[in-house]
Amino acid sequence: MQTFAVYVDNKPGVLNRVASLFRRRAFNIESLTVGHTETPGISRMTIVVDTDERGGRLVVANLYKLIPVRRVDNITEVPTIARDLALIKVAATGDSRTQVMQLVDVYRARIVDVSPDSLVIETTGTEDKIDSLLEVLRPYGLVEMVRTGRIEMIRGSSTPARRGTRGTVVGLDDAAAGSV
Amino acid sequence: MGEKKTMTGAQTLWDCLVREGVTVVFGYPGGAILPAYDAMLDFPIRHILVRHEQGATHMADGFARATGKVGVAIATSGPGATNMVTGIATAMMDSSPIVCITGQVGSSVIGSDAFQETDITGITLPITKHNFLVTRAADIAPAIREAFAIAANGRPGPVLVDITKDAQLGTCEYDWDAAAPDLTALARPGHSMGVDPLGLINAAERPLILAGHGIILGGAEAALQAFAEKANIPVAMTLLGIGGFPASHHLNLGMMGMHGEAWVNTAVQEADLLIALGMRFDDRVTGNIKTYALNAKKIHVDIDPCEFNKNVKVDSAISGSVGDVVRDWMPRLATVKRSQWIDHITELKGDSAVRDIQNLPDDGHLYAAHVINDLWRLTEGKAVVVTDVGQHQMWEAQYYKHESPRSLITSGGLGTMGFALPAAIGAKVGRPDAEVWVVVGDGGFQMTMAELATMVQEEIDVKIAIINNGFLGMVRQWQEFFYQRRYAATPISGPDFAKLAESFGILGQTVTTRGEVEAAVAAARGARGALIDFRVEQEDSVYPMVPAGADLDKMIRRPSPIVETAAD
User: Fold this and answer.
1) DSSP label at B442?
2) Pairing of strands B207-211, B159-164
3) Do A177 and B304 touch (CB under 8 A)?
4) Given 3-state DSSP classes, what are the helix, strand and coil percentages for chain A, each rounded to the nearest 5?
5) B92 carries an active-site annotation
6) Complex ipTM, two decimals?
7) Spatial separation of the C-alpha atoms in residues B153 and B191, rounded to whole Å
8) CB B405 within 8 A of CB B322
9) SS3 B131
10) What is the pTM of this model?
C-alpha cells in the first residue's frame, strides 16, 4: 500500500481527472478522501493505492501530469497520524443496549442517536480500531454503517505548505526542475 | 497590466491566436462555433476548410510536426468535436503540440441533451494533455493562453478548448497581459534516480544509443551527434526518431524493433549498455520484454518521468530535455574507440545485405521497397515524407534515408490509418518551400481521400504515392505468418486512383513496372499536386519481422534465393 497527499486546485472536474487517471493506468484505489485545506482554492486528497514502491513512483509522476495537481507527497514511509471516521447503526434493545453502551465506552466512541430499537455510534481512529469495534458490535446486529476513508497528516512541525508549494517527492532525488 | 479593450469572446479568441503566432487554422464550421467563424473574418488568419474534422486534427498535427510550432484545429460541437477524437488521440500518443477549439451549446442548456451537444471535455479527458470548458467570454483568453503553454511545454501534446456559444457572443474586458498563464504553477519537479550515468557510459564496451522522438521534439540533434561522436557510440533509431540523426552518418545503424534492421536488434541484445534518449521502450521496440537486452545496463533520459521504469527497469534515469542532459555529460565523457564493437556490428550488416531486396536480381515485378528506394534517389533524400500506417510505412522507414529532422512524419504510437494525406497537407502549409510526399497504402488512402478536395481548393501542392497492393497489407502479412493464410477481410478494392486524381483536377498516373517509376516521379515533381498509383507486388511482406511478443533477435528474415541456395 502507498499513501499520497495530493494538493489540487479546487475546480470542477478535478476529482474526475484524478479518478480517470487511476482507471486508465490501472492503479487500484483503496481509499480516496478529499476536502478543503487551510489555503483557499486548494483541496487536499488522501489517496491510498494498492501498489509497491515502484508503482508509487509512477503514481506520483502521473499525478504531476494533471495540470490542476499542485503538489504530490508520497507519505507512505513518513510518520503520520491516520484517521478514519465511522457512523455505525446497531440494533440494541433491552439487555443488549447496556452491553453495546459499555463497548462504546471501552472504544472511546460516542452515541449520537438513540431510538427504541437502535443506537447510532460515532467513532474516529485508525482503520484497525474501527474494524475491531465493528467486529465486537457485529453480534448485536449491524443495521447500517458509513465510513469516510482515511485522512492522513505528517507528524511534527514539517508541513508541506511550509516547504513551499513544490517540494521534493519523497523517495526521489530532485534533479533540475522539470516542466509541464 | 496592459491595455483593456471591450471585445466579444469570439474576438478575444482570434486576437489571442494571432498574438500566439497563429496564421493558419484547419477547420469546419457549424452552429455552435458560428460566432467564432464570423469574428475570424476580421483577423489575419488563413482558414483551411477540411472535408472531415478528423482531417483538421491530422493537418494541425502534421503542421506541428513539420514546423515545431503549435497546430490549431477548429470545429463545432457534437459530431464536429467527436470527429476530432482520432486525431487528438494520434497527437497524444506521439506528443504532438496541437490546440483544438470546439464550439459548445449555450451554457444554460449544457446537460440537457441539446441539439449537437456532447460532453467533449469528458470524451477527450484521457487523450488530451489537458482540456478546458469555457462558459464565460472573460475566460476565453486565459484558457487559450494556458492551452498554448501546456501544448508546447515539457512533453508536448494536444489541448482542447471547448467554448460555449454564449461565451463567444458575450462581451468582456479583454487584457492580453492579464491573461498570461502562471508558468510557475505549470512547472513540475524533476526526477532522477539510480547510479551515475557517466560511470556506466565511460566503462561500457558495447554501448548503444537508442534515439527517439524526444531528440527532434527537444531540438537535440547537434547534442546527440556530438555525444555519439566523442564517445564512438552507435545510434539506433525508433520510428519517430528517424531524422534526429543523419542516416548517412557512420554511427547511424538505422531503425530498431519489430521491423528494424536485423543488425540493430542483434546489437541491442548483445549490448552491455543502452542509453535511451527521448524514447519510451514501446512494445514495438522491445519485443518480448522478459528477454529484452538482458546483458545491458540501461540509462533512460526523458522529459517525462512517467516513462521511467514503466516498461523496462533501468539503472539510471534522468528527467529533462534530452539536449540539456547530454550537454551536461560532455565534460566528463571519455573518448573511447570501441572499434571491436563497431566492427562487429559492421559484420552483422554484411550478413543482412545479401538478403536485402535491393540486392536481389530484378524479376520484373514492381516491389514497394524499390519504389521507395527510387523515390529517395530521385528526390535526393530531401523531401518531407508523410507516411500512413502499415507495410508501406515500414518500407519507407527502411528505404528512404532521412538526413534531417522533421523530414519523416508518421503516426507511430496510435498507428492511425488515414493520417498521411491530411498530415501532409498540414506539413506543406507549414513548410511551403519543402517538397512534400505522401507515401500511403491503398487502404489508408481510402479512409481520408476526401481531403484531396481540401488540397485542391486550397492549392496545396502535395505529391501522393499510393503503394497499392490490393490488400490491407500488414494485416494480410500477419494472416500469412500467423493465421495460415486465411485472408479474412484483407483483400480490398478501390477506385482507379489516377482517374480519381484527375477528377479532382490533379495529375494522376498509374505505374505497374519498375521502368516507369522514374518518369512518373519526374512528372509528379513538375506538377502542382499529383498522385501516382503504384501497383506493387500483392503478397510481398516486410522483413525482417519480430513476431509480436517474440524475442527481439528472433526475427523472420526475407527468404533469399542466394542465401537459401548457398545453404543447400
Assistant:
1) H
2) unpaired
3) no
4) 30, 35, 35
5) no
6) 0.88
7) 17
8) no
9) strand
10) 0.93
